[in-house]
Amino acid sequence: MRTRAAILREVNTPWSVEEIELDPPKDREVLVKLAASGLCHSDEHVLTGDLAGLVASPPIVGGHEGAGIVQEVGAAVDWLEPGDHVVFGFVPACGRCDSCVVGRSNLCEEAANYPTGLQISDSTARHHTTDGHDLGLMCLLGTFAEHTVVNEASCVKIDQDWPLDKACLLGCGVVTGWGSAVYTADVQPGDYVAVVGAGGLGQNAVQGARMAGARAIAAIDPVEFKREKAMEFGATHTFSSIEDALENSEPVHWNRGYDKVIMTMGVGSAGDLGQAFNLGGKRSRLVVTNLHPTTEVGMEVPAIMMTMFEKQIVGSLFGSANIRKDIPRLMELYLQGELNLDDLVTKTYTLDEINDGYEAMRNGENIRGVILFD
Ligand SMILES: NC(=O)c1ccc[n+]([C@@H]2O[C@H](COP(=O)([O-])OP(=O)(O)OC[C@H]3O[C@@H](n4cnc5c(N)ncnc54)[C@H](O)[C@@H]3O)[C@@H](O)[C@H]2O)c1
Ligand SMILES: [Zn+2]
Ligand SMILES: [Zn+2]
To answer: In ligand 1, which atom is closest to the CA atom of 39?
Structure first.
């Protein structure tokens, strides 16, 4: 069939919205009509080339934070049927690999297919340009498209009366930010927490820290609008930079240092990470959620302080969450009024306006932009 998609044809060029050719789903695959797709910073990393080697090279269909309605399923898919509503996990969860069986589906082995961007089942493409060239998929999804074909492992079935324009956010940013605080940082009641970068993920780290019982939450972001929003999402203090927080956090944590520091900046950098390490106090945990360019190697931290203060540095992928448990759970928390998804979406766009959405991200105007499909 023909559909339309935003394709990155070359690094550092705008998204190109084009007709593409989409093959029908094979055995364990699902054809989905997208309802909504969030504009996460990770696709911006694809555009700038930061993720070279980690995701498929251009041409690639972008987008990994989506939700939609199943149109057709392959012969071996027995738990989804046309009409079902699904959120995609940006990491598949096969349910069978080592990571999945120990309850760490965020580290599912099937993510090893990221660098090709081809289908999990047989390493071939279902997406092609109209002149016959194969297209890779961001995170094996390609949600910047009116329709896509993905493996069943990438799908999480949700209730049909849950709003898809909010549910899409759970395919990446909300679960990743919230889980970075609740699971990876393991925020405890009474903790002092710092969140570095108050964008789409950071605001959810703030919400997660609040729900986990943090005593004080400092949101650090150079953009005033982001700091104001963070106070609405549950921050108790704000700072305009890591340096500002290093100098002025005494009223927050009484000079003890933060217990948990969560990195959710747009682009991670070794220099910022090294500085943020100093925000943490004794037995603090520094959680690296933001993505550093794949070419960056090495970071400088005073290792002696890791020993003397028993400080930890840990990474967090998809908030250390399990999508089949956590996506429905967070959706229910939203419906109960405990989790704020409404104020995350600053502006919505059509697929054709995708470059405006990313320009707004670069200008610090959006917490999250979301593409709505007809
Ligand atoms: N680990 C994962 O599983 C995972 C999943 C999704 C996204 N990510 C990554 O997380 C990061 C955040 O994504 P997002 O969609 O929230 O991005 P975003 O652009 O919405 O937010 C980033 C925020 O960081 C702020 N910022 C920039 N420089 C800063 C600095 N020096 N100090 C403090 N704040 C600064 C920006 O003003 C912005 O508010 C990106 O690197 C993204 O690729 C990681
Ligand atoms: Zn994302
Ligand atoms: Zn798995």
So the answer is: 15
